[in-house]
Amino acid sequence: MDSGRMIEMDKKFQKELNAGIGALLLLSTMNKSDKPLYGYQIAKAIENSSDSGYSIKLGTLYPVLRSLEDNGFLKSEVEASVAGPPRRYYEITAQGRETLFRWVEIWTQAKDFIDKNLKEGLK
Amino acid sequence: MISSIKDYLKQLDKALKGSDRAVIQDAIADAEEYLNNAMAEVKLKNPGINEEAAIPGILDTYGTPVEVAAAYRKAEFETSTNIKIADNTSNFMETDNEAPIALQPKNIAPGKWYYLFFKIIGIFTVPVSEPSFGNNIFYMGGDRFFTILRAACLNYRNTIFFPVYSFIKGAGFN
Questions:
Q1: Would the CB atoms of A86 and B156 count as touching at under 8 Å?
Q2: What residues of chain A have any CB closer than 8 angstroms to a CB in chain B?
Q3: A39 contact residues in B (CB cutoff 8 A)
Q4: Which run of H or E residues covers position A5?
Q5: What is the DSSP letter of A37?
Q6: CB–CB of B110/B100 below 8 Å?
């Protein structure tokens, strides 16, 4: 396989992986924050937490943010900004917090399962 | 080659062609918010840098128009699928934040234009004698009125258009 194809396959794998974890990352980020955050602040918080070189395209998180709000996991309010257009500030709801804890359990189970498999597979 | 935020927004709009108008507006607004903030930050850190030089680094983090458009299309598909499932499951299925599906604006007789009429009247006259369905978006009590009015005042594009747009979007008229 040529290197171009390899990079393409790696990107595809990472994209598929990210598709599932975006909502979990967003809920976790919002749960950590003690104040409402607007989109750019949320994206930066996620970007800054990545010190392992692992990256996620921040633009793909915005629709997930809106979808979490549609499902009642986040709530938002539009507020005026001195530096430009109004900003939508998001905050986690009680339902969002409960969901986060459930999803963390599911994530931990999946991670343990994959880790165990990888460990055995790489022997 | 994308050389400015304006270019990016044009390409994103193009990549979302065929999607719901509200989805396209959301995607453009989100991208505008991120890119403008990121650009301001880059310029603060590197005084003198021009937009063309700064944009590749910003887009590397944000995603290409095609990648971002794909994420919005996916969310749009999931939302429409959920609505279909809800419709098929129960006409009175309730969620925490919404009116029962059967009482949601687009599902109520005598038709959307009737409600659009009341909604537009409601923007300018409060309170109104509009049919109310409890917690649904057609309730035009004082709070709702001021929410819409505030959104209209905050909106930087067009103070008249925005409340009408938000209603149309909320009621599924697009």
A1: yes
A2: 15, 19, 38-40, 43, 47, 55, 57-64, 66-67, 70, 72, 78-80, 83-87, 95
A3: 30, 33-34
A4: helix A3-32
A5: E
A6: no
pLDDT tens digit at each of 174 positions of chain B: 899 999 999 999 999 999 999 999 999 999 999 999 999 999 999 999 999 999 999 999 999 999 999 999 988 887 766 655 655 655 544 444 545 444 455 444 445 565 577 667 666 654 443 444 444 444 444 455 555 555 555 544 444 555 565 566 566 544
How many residues are there in chain B? 174
Cα separation, B97 vs B118, in Å, equals 22
What residue type is B125 in one-letter code? T
Structure ipTM over 0.90, yes or no = no
What is the chain B residue with the closest CA to A23?
B75
Q: B146 contacts in A (CB within 8 Å)?
A: none
Residues in Cβ contact with B159 at an 8 Å cutoff, skipping those fewer than 6 apart: B152, B153
Long-range contacts of range B44-48, CB-CB < 8 Å, 24 or more positions apart? Answer: none
